[in-house]
Specification:
2 copies of one chain form a homodimer. Chain A folds into 2 domains: about 210 residues, 3-Layer(aba) Sandwich (Rossmann fold); about 90 residues, Rossmann fold. Helix content of chain A is about 45%, strand content about 15%. Chain A contains 14 helices and 10 strands. In chain A, the strands form 2 sheets. Chain A has a 6-stranded mixed sheet, with helices on both faces. In chain A, strands 5-4-3-6 form a 4-stranded parallel sheet, with helices on both faces. In chain A, α1 crosses α3 and α9 packs parallel to α11. The N and C termini of chain A lie far apart (about 40 Å). The interface between A and B is medium-sized, with 20 and 21 residues.
Chain lengths: ~325, ~325
């Protein structure tokens, strides 16, 4: 298992990345509070560079490399926000980035990564092909592999979003973040339980991709088997490292239906006036499905990102 | 002509409304700056209460009334953001609001006003019927008429958005706001030319509703004759008061096509991750049509609002 960061690592990450990342705004809506029967404080990582929290972890990972490592660049496998985040963070640091992507990745995601001048290596759309291709790239380039979430520095970087939220909003009763691979959730949980040991921390998952819920209930890692949810950022399974953090830090994992995700997205667009991706609406969807649990409380929510095809919104 | 506020009136408005309005965030996007060839700073009044800058002026107008006036309440004619703004500002101040609306107003706008507990008086959808109905309401209730833009306190309130923008972002070369009736534009121009006499100030209008452009060019007020633009907040014509301010304070009025409005909206959704109404995208559309004018400069833009049917976006 990877080494797990503690809060001092997250504090160091915060200092390391401060000049490179946006300190994103925290938004609230009176109308949305009335709908949800509680006070909601949204940490808007959809306004982060590349449109997602992933830029925090990627920047922290790259800025933690040695001079020799930096010279050889970084690599990863991802067709989503982590690929863009690592590409931009590498470009800003002046080092090469190599991205392994399935050859059926959407053109818009390929273009986004190319726009940051990363080099793309295509592979067949299978887990095995992806790992083989990544190994080839590593052997050829000597680049450091930055895993999207099973990485000490990535988790530490993602924990800086909750740190900013907790510094700016006092007296929260609970904090909720979406769970995909568990990098954001791990960083959020470590930060929260370190600063406020009695504050409740919840993960939020679509019912249709509830591998983290099932893993925590079973007390062992149960990977997702080709889950189908519109929350395309939450399809991945936990790693041993993030499973360990979630098992030891979370109060519970909440789940929500696809219908609730659409409703939550629509509320965020109509009431908060922000563009979020389906994954980013999952925590609000879980609040709406569990209103009694949060009634009249102060709840912090991390909006993970805003990368969505605005021509194909689900409402 | 109404009395025109000067900057000291805007400073007073700012103090008067501070505890009631949101200090809205100012957002930027590196990608959008690359597209526009300049540095853009967006003052996001789409995040204001009721989703539009109108809440500033309405709050300032109500909070400037005497105790006797307050007891009788306020009234206006509007089916748009001003109706909602006045209704909420009145509710917050604990006074009645009476809104005259055309009977063919969209149900969603009627519901929004009712939600703020204002009393609605319907009228035929003509200018004459609207004014007759408003007079009846005034006679019956004794309420103070708060005009959507031809009002000293409303203009002073709208000027506080530019004040916040100029206090938070230094060294702007120009500032641009949309022009409908001219209330926001007047407040923006008075603030800007008072604080920075050499900073350029531009109005932004759809070509399809360019009554302010034509009025300023002709040196006299030329009202709009049933203009057709998707920017439904900019259909109204200037008043004598706002025409006077714009004539004496603006460097120019820029116009844009409907196609540019759609493109600008899409950029704001995709790159900035914010929901804006068509009127709010008009200043960016004008920048995109006049890139040489702003090349490499620092430009402040006021996003007027975000009240749009997200199920009927034009892209």
């Amino acid at each position: 298992m990877i080494k797990i960061p503690d809060f001092s690592d997250i504090e160091n990450a915060s200092k390391r990345i401060a000049q490179f990342v946006h300190k994103t705004p925290i938004l609230s809506s009176r109308l949305l509070n009335e709908i949800a029967d509680c006070e909601l404080f949204f940490k808007c990582e959809n306004f982060q560079k590349v449109g997602a929290f992933k830029f925090r972890g990627a920047t922290n990972a790259i800025r933690s490399l040695s001079k020799d490592e930096l010279a050889k660049g970084v690599c990863t496998h991802s067709s989503g926000n982590h690929a863009q985040a690592l590409s931009l963070a590498a470009k800003q640091a002046g080092v090469p980035a190599y991205i392994v992507m399935p050859k059926n990745a959407p053109q818009v995601k390929i273009d986004a990564v190319r726009n940051y001048r990363a080099e793309i290596f295509f592979c067949e759309p299978t887990l095995e092909a992806r790992e083989t291709r990544l190994k080839e790239v590593q052997e050829k380039t000597g680049a450091s592999f930055i895993h999207p979430y099973n990485n000490f520095h990535v988790i530490a970087g993602q924990g800086t979003a909750a740190k900013e939220l907790l510094e700016d909003v006092s007296n929260l009763d609970a904090i909720i973040a979406p769970v995909g691979g568990g990098g954001l959730m791990s960083g959020t949980a470590i930060t929260t339980k370190s600063l406020h040991p009695t504050m409740r921390v919840y993960g939020a998952e679509p019912k249709a991709a509830d591998d983290a819920k099932r893993s925590l209930d079973a007390g062992k890692l149960i990977p997702s088997l080709s889950p189908k949810t519109m929350a395309d950022g939450l399809l991945t399974s936990l790693s041993d490292g993030t499973f360990h953090v979630l098992s030891t830090h979370l109060d519970d994992i909440l789940t929500c239906s696809e219908t609730s995700i659409v409703l939550a997205m629509r509320y965020l667009y109509e009431r908060m006036k922000i563009v979020v991706e389906p994954s980013g609406a999952v925590p609000l969807a879980c609040v709406l499905e569990n209103k009694e649990m949060f009634k009249n409380q102060r709840i912090g929510i991390i909006i993970s990102g805003g990368n969505v095809d605005v021509q194909k919104l689900p409402f």
